[in-house]
UniProtKB/TrEMBL annotation, chain A:
Protein name: Phosphonate transport system permease protein
Subcellular location per the Swiss-Prot or TrEMBL entry: Cell membrane
InterPro entries in the cross-refs: MetI-like, MetI-like_sf
Topology class, membrane: Multi-pass membrane protein
GO cellular component terms attached to this protein's record: plasma membrane
TM spans (from-to): 12-30, 74-94, 115-133, 139-156, 205-223, 235-253
Ranges where the ABC transmembrane type-1 domain occurs: 70-253
From TrEMBL, chain B:
Subcellular location: Cell membrane
All copies of domain ABC transmembrane type-1, residue ranges: 88-272
GO terms for biological process, alphabetical: transmembrane transport
Membrane-protein topology: Multi-pass membrane protein
Record's keyword annotation contains Methyltransferase: no
Protein's organism: Bhargavaea ginsengi
Name of the molecule in the record: Phosphonate transport system permease protein
Family the entry assigns: Belongs to the binding-protein-dependent transport system permease family.
Pfam families given in the database record: BPD_transp_1
Keyword annotations from UniProtKB, A to Z: Cell membrane, Membrane, Transmembrane, Transmembrane helix, Transport
Residues annotated as transmembrane: 29-49, 84-114, 126-149, 194-216, 222-242, 254-271
Length: 261, 283
């Protein structure tokens, strides 16, 4: 590294930082964001949380109802993720350059994945709500559609990383396409894919809360209802149950991941 | 990424004397039971659903009709193009603010959380707090801040900030932990203090990673900002989407807004993929 390289690097860094500062001010101006007022709001918000988000006996009486909805939400996320994983596996095998049947199928499956991934889950839930109505199936479908896109991208990367050598080896022995897929691609990529599925289940439980608020289903609906009626004791209890559920699932999947990867 | 290591096992024979090629080890046992459990839970899930007002025979053709109206005849009717661009800019702005502030906070917290730069008790306690913050869905943070700090961009940014910090601390501290210990040792042996090791050793060797993670978070924060607009009334294009579908039932407008969000999301994704591949090809 000589002096000019260092100088150029320093110049680039300065430019980057200036750019970020300008961007921040511009964003603050557009969104009408007050730096000072937001700093002032933090201690007040913390104090408010400490004094209002307390679970009392009356709120605990609602626990059976909350658990009911929480279990429904967890099941919704697991079902959406698992079924999406099955479809994603198919799309990924079609879309990966290693195992692609032909170009048209490959492009098509990557296009489907990109569309489902880049339209936010909010948009999907609002679109589906219009015709499917206010029930679990709407939430399930919204999560399902968003998950397919994400998992297909992850699975394609997994297949590309894991399977290249063994696919070539099997092809050399004269194995058919389905033999290659079932004996090399799937077993090789399976641990990584299961790890992605577990990650997606965790993410989906959190997204399910958001989807629930929008579509009026599951734990999200319950939260929204008590939030709007300003029953903050129950709001606190619901938040705690969600946190416990997410952390429990995270711990479980960390243990599984440790063994399989 | 991860190499699958074949564990050496004793060759087992079936009763007929053939080599048992299915003889499982712990890995395949756990893998198989995870898959079975997921399958069983999925089947079970459909018994727990609430099917109020679910009429598939009516809903499916209706959805197809709606999708056709949305995506083939998109049109703005309640606001013009200038207003739409402004709303998109607000959403982008919310995402950018949460990302920039998040990256700054996360940088310092990640220094405390990285095991090679910090003391065990500090790194452990930061990790526990971060795990807790991550477990609360963003929308709940935003809604809680909205009561405490009043509805507006402040509540939205603060709520999104919590998750961004938690996400980036995890990513950043993992990047810091992968810094070559020789670099740190070399700097320490010259008598460099802790800050000097960070500024001259850790930051230059991880900077591109930090940048690529931050941009990835911006990509995520854009869709989070859309969600917050719709679910928490934080403004921006997400709020317009919510109004178009929930209040006006204007499918064509929903379609147009979805197209706008899609276009921006794809541009951001392409940009972040480019950035990531540049980072990985650099080393």
């Amino acid at each position: 590294m000589n002096e000019t390289v260092l100088k150029k690097r320093k110049f680039q860094m300065t430019l980057l930082f200036l750019g970020v500062i300008v961007l921040t001010y511009l964003s603050a101006w557009i969104t009408d964001y007050g730096f000072i007022s937001s700093l002032e709001a933090v201690p007040g918000a913390m104090a408010w949380m400490a004094s209002n988000l307390l679970v009392n006996g009356e709120a605990l009486g609602k626990l059976p109802d909350i658990m009911d909805k929480l279990i429904e939400t967890i099941f919704m996320s697991i079902a959406a993720t698992t079924i999406a994983a099955a479809l994603s596996l198919f799309l990924a095998i079609m879309g990966s350059k290693t195992t692609m049947v032909n170009r048209a199928f490959g492009t098509f499956s990557r296009f489907v994945a990109s569309l489902s991934r880049n339209i936010p889950v909010v948009a999907w839930s609002l679109i589906l709500l219009l015709s499917f109505g206010q029930n679990s199936v709407t939430g399930f479908l919204a999560l399902f559609v968003g998950t397919v896109g994400f998992l297909t991208r992850a699975f394609i990367e997994t297949i590309d990383e894991a399977a290249l050598g063994s696919v070539e080896a099997l092809r050399a022995t004269g194995a058919t396409y389905w033999q290659i897929v079932s004996k090399a691609v799937v077993p090789q990529g399976l641990p990584q894919m299961v790890s992605w599925v577990l990650f997606m289940i965790e993410t989906n439980i959190r997204s399910a809360t958001l989807v629930g608020i929008l579509t009026g289903t599951g734990i999200g609906y319950m939260f929204d209802m008590y939030y709007k009626t300003m029953n903050y004791e129950v709001v606190a209890l619901i938040t705690i149950t969600i946190v416990l559920a997410v952390i429990l699932i995270e711990l479980l999947s960390t243990r599984i991941r440790k063994v399989i990867l | 990424m991860q190499q699958i290591t074949q564990q050496p096992s004793v060759i087992r024979h079936t009763r007929a004397g053939k080599i048992n090629i299915r003889s499982g080890n712990r890995v395949s046992l756990v893998l198989r039971s995870t898959l079975w459990a997921l399958g069983a839970l999925t089947v079970l899930a459909f018994f727990f659903f609430d099917y109020t007002g679910f009429r598939p025979l009516q809903a499916i053709p209706e959805t197809l009709y709606n999708l056709k109206a949305m995506f083939l005849e998109p049109k703005l009717s309640h606001f013009g193009w200038g207003e739409a661009a402004m709303q998109v800019a607000i959403t982008l702005g919310l995402g950018a603010l949460a990302t920039v502030f998040g990256a700054v906070f996360a940088f310092f917290l990640a220094l405390g959380a990285a095991e090679n730069l910090s003391v065990p008790w500090l790194s452990k306690s930061i990790r526990v707090v971060v795990a807790f913050v991550r477990a609360v869905p963003t929308v709940l943070w935003v809604l809680i801040f909205a009561i405490a700090a009043g509805l507006g961009s402040e509540a939205a940014v603060l709520g999104m900030l919590f998750h961004s910090v938690a996400y980036l601390v995890k990513a950043f501290s993992e990047a810091f932990e992968e810094v070559d210990p020789k670099i740190l040792e070399a700097l320490r042996s010259t008598g460099a203090g802790w800050w000097q090791t960070v500024v001259h050793g850790v930051v230059p060797s991880t900077f591109t990673y930090l940048l690529s993670w931050t941009f990835l978070r911006f990509e995520i924060n854009f869709s989070v900002a859309v969600a917050m607009g719709a679910a928490a009334g934080a403004g921006g294009i997400g709020f317009e989407l919510f109004m178009a579908s929930g209040f006006y039932f204007d499918l064509r407008e929903v379609g147009m807004i979805t197209y706008m969000i899609l276009a921006i999301a794809i541009v951001l994704e392409i940009f972040s993929t480019r950035l990531k591949s540049r980072v990985y090809s650099a080393d």
